[in-house]
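We both want to read discrete structure tokens more fluently, so let's practise on a single case. Once you have written the record down, we can walk along the chain together.
***
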Amino acid sequence: MARVGGRNLAISWIAGLLCTGVVAGLAWFALPIVPTMAQFVGEGMRSVLP
């Protein structure tokens, strides 16, 4: 069996899919704040740039 980073290849795939799921879940929870952050960054750039 092939080894990746000292682990079994199947376990590496499972861990990768689990991490991808966690990142996707965090991105899903962060979606409602995107318009507010865009407005905040836009106002900040307008105040700094002439």
User: Anything to note?
Assistant: Residues 9-30 form the longest helix (22 residues). The mean pLDDT is 86.
